[in-house]
Design brief:
The complex is a heterodimer of chains A (465) and B (184). Chain A has 465 residues and is of the alpha+beta class. Helix content of chain A is 25%, strand content 25%. Chain B has helices spanning 13-34, 38-42, 78-88; strands at 45-56, 67-77, 101-113, 125-136, 144-157, 160-170. Classes of the chains: A alpha+beta (465), B alpha+beta (184).
Amino acid sequence: MASVPEYLYRMRETLPKGRVPAKIFNDPQIYQLEKERLFSRAWVFLAHESEIPQPGDYVLRWIADLSVIVVRDEHGQVRAFRNACTHRGNQVCKAEMGNASHFRCSYHGWTFKNTGELVGVPYHREVYRGQLDKSEWGLHPVRIDTYAGLIFGTLDPNAEPLETYLGGFQFYLDFFLRPGPEGTEVYAPPERWVADTDWKICAENFGGDGYHTPVAHQFGFALGFYPSSGRTHFMGYAVHIPGRGHCIGIGHTPGLPPFAGFPPEVVEGYQQALSPEQISVFRDARMSVATVFPNLSFLIQPFSLTPGKPGLKFCTMRLWHPRGPGRIEMWTWCLVPKHISPELKREIYRVYSLAFGAAGTFEQDDFENWTNLSRQHAAFNADTFELAYLQGLDWEPLSDFPGPGYAFTPYATEIGFRNLWGTWLNYLLTPPGEPVDPAKVPPAFSPAQQPSSAESGTYGFVGEE
Amino acid sequence: MVLRDVQLPRIDLDYIKLYHEVHQFLSYEALLLSERRYDDWLTLFTDDAVYEVPIRVTRERGAAWEFSPTGRLFDDTKETLAVRIARLNTEYAWAEDPPSRVRYYLSNLLLTATDAGSLEPARDVIARYNVLVIRTRGELPDIEFVSTHRHDRLRHTEDGWKIAHRTITIDHSVLQVRNLSFFL
């Protein structure tokens, strides 16, 4: 078992003051701890139900470095298993996706039904004298639960239900997952690539880093892609669920019609699928970006194939899969509303793929920044290199906001990130065997400390009109 | 993408001439990319050109497809290639500033007619060939590489050869590049 580095205890004191040691983003010891204390206990995203629509459909996924088969059995029930034969541990499934009623190990031939049950043992009579109790040696199940088409898995038998874990964040997830009563589907298999950056860097960015957009993606302003101007870019909300890590940024552009940028059938879909409170929060959203703790994110934003054309809104879902210290395997999907025409789905996908994916014009610049900063985080003394997480330390949450959690305005702030890293720290400092208590996560803001210095009304940045 | 139905052309002097013409065109095109002369590169595409890179998925032998029928890394027309180039021409394309060094190693060129017809310069031809794309970036000693196969439909026009349809298939199902801020 990995020991807890000293600087993590220091971080408990510095995080509420807006300081985070850079080393947490690139440290072999931290990566070990994350496997033992975070990915072994959290609810980790595995698959979207639309990826395995038919009985027998399966996909291969990961929880940290554990390979997991996610399969729909012959009765339509979704199940997940450790992708390892119980005889010698060989992979029983080697394809990323497919359809199978059984998984047969290519080493000694043990064969498992897609319910996980061991049904075939070659030479059972000869080598076990017919006495092996097959019911004891099925594939190891991974506990799963679903929300709005998302299948999550946890390795912790004592983990609280997914509903409790999401802690009200469902209110916000619905914007990405319920663009109509029928929900969403993936348009294509995920695009995947590896890069030298840490999953946490990406999860944080998609937790609502509106601050980077006008600079990191300045080309978009320069070419005339954005419907927002520099002056209004930061309007909107930042919301987080205290103690849970989940956070969302919602960028508003005033003066647009409700759900602008969505096709009429999606605007109608939202009106049917969302509650009046949800509609009031998302009606004016130009874009929204959210992270489900620890490493699943969503983004809805408008884009067009050429600058100046009316933007079309797409939704991307991404998994920041840890591959090692400072190393990530990126998974990205485009989610489309199930109820719209195939032509419209294709149109949305084309816009998505010009913006996101390895070749995406936005994604390119993010990965340039993320890989470069990750090298600095690996420096031998990066535990004393404290990064500035100072935004919104003393902000007051909105008192009349209709959704769960703490909401702030404008949407570009680091309050949610302090909650994200506080939640992460709570997992890493809670020894194995003890329950992770969300109440132990320190508040991400404290208005009482510095009541006078709120500057939430000024948005000066490069590119401002 | 599948060789099964290809009629290999008979090698005669006309074929050799055509082969070298196409080879020269593709080598020139690759050099334009390496030298980042993107605006010049774009003129080598027909106005109705398609440039696509499907997502590869590791499937069982005999699966219906290995390249996603719907998913694309690049899903481009000449219009969107122009947008990518306009982006690279701004001062804010951070992913390529300082620029990557990208080299294109072309090999295994196979030139065939588009259908059962004869191979002649007046018709579109199909060029199948491998391209090993090697990128080095910054002061990192590591290389990033993408092993690819191109399937091009090339058209002979009054202005010389043009690319009418390029499909690039990648060997990796999980790419080992941080991004594709260059062209394959």
